[in-house]
Fold each of these.
Amino acid sequence: MSSPLSDQKLAALLDRLHAQSDKQLAEIDEYCVSLEQKDAFDWCVFNDDMHQFFADKMVALDRDKAEFCYQLCRALGASRVVEAGTSFGVSTLYLAAAIRDNQAEEGLVIATEWDPGKAEIARGNFREAGLSEYIDLREGDLRQTLRNLGGSIDFMLVDIWEVAKPALELVSPYLRTGAIVVCDNTTVDRGEYDDYFEFVKDPVNRFRTMTLPFQGGFELTVRI
Ligand SMILES: C[S@@+](CC[C@H](N)C(=O)[O-])C[C@H]1O[C@@H](n2cnc3c(N)ncnc32)[C@H](O)[C@@H]1O
């Protein structure tokens, strides 16, 4: 049985990318504390200074959460996956590895990133891992790029803070029964996800949901 880490080339690339992202976390914490002290911090309202600061920040999904996504995609036998928020493509690599390892016909991760610089770096990482053929990286605002998904979806990763609910709302009609949606940081930043939870908990949308005790909270939602 293969896992992302038994692919030596991928394991080495992921080690490098996680190390790079972890190094930036202290810088990000410091920046957020300085904004909080000025009472100017709001994840949902990015000003120019915040956009500039985050332009080269990866904010990659934690390794344990990313490996958990890989496991879930393997358990589901997932062939069609959506990722909202790609950045340098760390989590995308785990998802694409699961698709590859599932040997699904025409398997695909539909990923999306609006920053062209980050998208270019992500494409380089996909090439280096030999996983490009499993990834359709759609560049632009996800409120546009996730409009047409071309078929049913088995798994979705929401790794984004400003537009989690619009992302889920767009993908929801494509989620098959039993599909899983995971969303990062739903405990630590709970206030930013009110509209997301309202959507998930509306019975019309046919979800069951629970918060998993990963750091910061990791919401696991199933289409019923
Ligand atoms: C937390 S990061 C994603 C990290 C990535 N999943 C990983 O593990 O490496 C969120 C990303 O979403 C992008 N983003 C923010 N708003 C967006 C939008 N409306 N449409 C597309 N991408 C967006 C940001 O530029 C940022 O790179």
Amino acid sequence: MFCCFKKTREVCHRTNCYQVAVGDVILGGYHNVAIQSMIKIKTSNVDTVINQINKLVNLGCDLVRVAVYDEKDAQALKQICIKSKCPIIADIHFNFLFAIKAIEAGCKKIRINPDNISDIDQLKQIIEKAKEYKVAIRIGINGGSASKNSGVETQNQLVKRMLNWVNFFEKQNFKNLVLSIKHSDPQLTYKANVLLSSKTRYPIHIGATEAGPNDLAIVKSCSLLLPLLNKGIGCTIRVSINGDPEQEVYIARAILNQAGLYHNFVDIIACPLCGRNKFNTIKIVNKVHQYLKDKKCHLSIAIMGCVVNGLGEANLADIGICIVSTTKSILFIKGKKVKTINNNNINSELKAYITKFTKK
Ligand code: SF4
């Protein structure tokens, strides 16, 4: 629906690529960039997995991937697909039979790395099954799986490896493809995806892989995803964090919001604080942030530590607080000074107005 490239002459890969359906989620064209995450517990723990999937969906996740590691996981897929609120993607490595079973169980997309499915006939069987069930296949080329090559692959080598496989799938008359090239080096991943987007019209899945712990993963994801999204590349994104999948979804929403591609997001403007601040602003900001993480509405909230930049920022936000002394703050609503409030009441006042806005 949103594309930053409408105003420029450069071709936007996202809006010009083929559209691929993953259940009721369409990748490509003017459809929203789909947010995906991955379940981090064993797939055979059906009830816990379903709880986690549906929690992620409520937080704004469009697609969820599960790893199919063994026969128990493969057996669990049918129940998971029935009970999930979103289309399920099965992540398969090495064993082609799990791919066949995942498709038959109702998964709407499978993610494979063809380089680790050794037998071409096995790949052909996966493709035929995917055709029969109208299931999409993501070809996932990963820098970490370049076992046949020594050393670090260049972007040209990664793209070449991908295009060879695309050619193979097309020869089997299969075009329901999503492509991803990932590497633990975000700069290399960026270059490879830019190159890939110039050579193909299939939807591209983007994300920084093996990105590390929370703060580092956020830095790597932003440094990779925002430039790609701003270039019109990426129909679906995953933020990979060595941690909570709920955080992955929140960060993905925030990144898309910053790229102008996702509007149902509450943006919080808060100053970094300095010696002029006279109240415990950090506590207020943290509380509001926690409260707003799962809210899906277009809203801006400014919480500012003093009048230097505070009056202006609070004035520009939908809901603005400018702390003016140790006891008093000014509350702004949509650019109008509404009242002076006691600092001890900032949270309750904010919550009341946020409720009003989010109910609309
Ligand atoms: S708004 Fe005031 S308290 Fe906040 S960083 Fe600026 S000068 Fe410091």
Amino acid sequence: MPARTGEQYLRALKEESNNIYIDGERVEDVTEHPAFRNVAKSVAELYDLQHEKPDKMLYTSPTTGDKVGLSFIEPKTKEDLIARREMFTEWARHSGGMMGRSPDYINTSIMAFASAAEFFRQGNKNGIDFGENVRKYYEFVRENDLALTHTLIHPQVNRSKMQHEQKDPMISAHVVKQDADGIYVSGCRLLATLGGITDECIVFPSTLNKATSGDDPYSMAFAFSNNTPGTKFICRESFDYGRNQWDHPLGAQFDESDAIVVFDNAFIPWERVFIVGNADICNRTYMETNAVIHMTHQVIAKNLAKTEFTLGVILNMIEAVGIEKFQHVKQKASEVMVALETMKSHLYRAEHNASVDKYGNMTPDFEPLNAARQWYPHMYQRIQEIIKILGASGLMAIPTHKDFESEEIGSLMHRYMQGANLDGYERVQLYRLAWDIAISAFGNRQALYEYYFFGDPVRMSNVYYDWFNKEPYKEMVQDFLERAKKRSGITPVKA
Ligand SMILES: Cc1cc2nc3c(=O)[nH]c(=O)nc-3n(C[C@H](O)[C@H](O)[C@H](O)COP(=O)(O)OP(=O)(O)OC[C@H]3O[C@@H](n4cnc5c(N)ncnc54)[C@H](O)[C@@H]3O)c2cc1C
């Protein structure tokens, strides 16, 4: 089947009747439910965009000849990588970068897993070819243009213990039974973003946290459709309050939802299983398949779009209240401009220095991408802080559309809320957008998302430190000191 339209995506969600819960109740139809219908429409718009800009968004499937989504491509050239990044950018710009989980994010990961089928074959057993399973699953998702979420993290019960050491070792999702047909899974996983409105979910190991063999029962990778009996997606309360998009410019469109995923003896057939009972393979999955590199390529393209959008908001705010002449204002806007240019450079170097990996995929240079993913979780908090500092009381003087509609107070709002170059109505709309980026529940969830979604930045920085090639820099300084010793003509003093 060629790439889906928005209408096909929404129809599928209706028909699937997935196991979605919110506020204590099962959701009958997410496309109608107030917590999900608007964000589902936004995802549908992304699917439609594929058909509005087919040259940018689609490529020819190598198996069916259909036109399928470009985020699924197994890149063979640098041009493929650049075309794929431009596709990421189209989708990211649609929400100003506020939808972290547009389906391209997971699509890149399953593409990388499929290319690295031989990696999964290390775990083959009982005649089951896990490499073949992962390859077929990727093709199934690509040809049906499905939307996926993923869940990688164990519940937070006690972070100083492994899963098998927990006071209740049955809490984290684990394999309870295997038979000739498949595996049976019980327990819980966190935190499936977009889980309420995706077709399928993949359960994979953490990109970062390592397990020991004692945690083999928890060490697995598999895929399931979101209506699988014995599974439940329990979504957090919605930050879409059912307001119009003037009042709530982002939350009323892009609140992706985050779900706790619960398994109760859920049956997963062998053809959907990719790793089972093997902590060692799990520990190496994201790095050795290069999935983390392709995902980071998508993330940095998305973050670039987010930085463009938030910079645009900041620049409009500066003009709206005539603060462009103040030095600290320019300095703060410049910080965001520098962030934008820096992100572009990270991407350029990653693509320019790309090389073919052992699976035959043209793979971006991870060094600049990895540096960008260490840095942006902190930078995004700063962008929000800058919006707060420059917005000041304007972020609270934000009457609603109804205030402007009111016969009694509407004219007051038009007049008293005006800016240097804008009528009150236009200025408040802009400041409501700034509020939704930096202050609202939606905005604060974005801050938490950017900080944590790729893993704990503290542990990421520790892994980065260990991984970084430090020797050349240490040697440079040792050479310098050695040269100084020689040139000064002194006799070295021994201890
Ligand atoms: C908005 C949002 C969306 C998300 N979406 C997804 C998703 O779609 N799929 C998914 O799988 N995950 C998702 N996540 C989860 C994300 O991967 C985790 O938040 C992240 O890996 C950190 O894990 P944790 O939240 O369990 O924090 P914890 O590991 O519980 O950490 C809590 C605190 O304790 C500290 N800490 C804990 N253990 C250690 C340690 N060993 N060493 C040092 N410090 C430690 C941390 O630094 C942190 O300050 C999402 C998270 C958020 C906030």
